[in-house]
Write a structure and sequence with these properties.
Blueprint lengths: L2 H15 L10 H11 L3 E2 L3 E4 L7 E4 L7 E5 L6 H8 L3 E5 L12 E4 L2 E3 L6 E3 H8 L8 E5 L5 H7 L2 H4 L2 E8 L8 H17 E8 L7 E3 L2 E3 L3 E7 L5 E3 L29
Parallel strand pairs: 4-5, 4-9, 5-6, 7-8, 9-10
Antiparallel strand pairs: 1-15, 2-3, 10-14, 11-14, 12-13
Length: about 270
Amino acid sequence: MGIRKKIIKKTCDYLLSKGTFTSKRTELDEIRQLLKTIIPKRLKINNVRIGGNNDGGYVVPNDLEKIEYCFSPGVGNLINFENDLTKKGIKSFLADFSVSQNFNNNLIDFEKKFVGPVSNENYICLKDWISSKIDYDKNNDLILQLDVEGDEYDIINSLDIKTLKKFRIILIEFHQLHYLFDSFSFKKIKKVFDILNKFFYCTHIHPNNNPEFIITEKDIIIPPVMEFSYLRKDRSSIIDQKLEFPTSIDQPNNPSRTDIDLPKCWYKS
């Protein structure tokens, strides 16, 4: 991204954080309808926390039996989640071009590339990455842990259905959710949630308490960054249409700041 585009994006982010919109605003009823489709469900399979407290830990559907591999685009400095998976015998494949890591663990494999919609010199698409590491056709119960600072929308939108359904569990930290108020971005974000909702149950949502703003418009409250947990629909069934939040296994990403409770518009219709 060029300097000019970066300045424009930073300016738009700042204005949005103050409730000022630089393009056509999304109708609030459109946002309400989308949120109704995302409401987490209570399944026969419960959630557990993996990766410890605070940042690096995730709330995960407790359906890990016979899972052998996890793919984790976006490494950063924390691999608590992947380290916990190795204790369960699950090998993790990590990828991030922006860092250089040397993991002293045979069950962690690091690729110095970004994961994106297409493969090129510094990027690899998810299907190519999976195919280069394991038997693509024989492995149909994987974990995807996706934290790529906003690129998650392009990655999910680019996936073919066969590759998407190879993941039994998907954990995504969605960024820039306040752009739901922007009519152009709303369509892009909605498309991703529609794709996930078709094949997966949302089992948990937790706001990241690091961002310093939350956008509120009437009854709609949107923390800009939130963690979502998904389980493929063939793995369980719904026993309750609604959950209550916060849950006993929620933890603040940043322990030095007050945690953010999930706003009711995200789990009450």
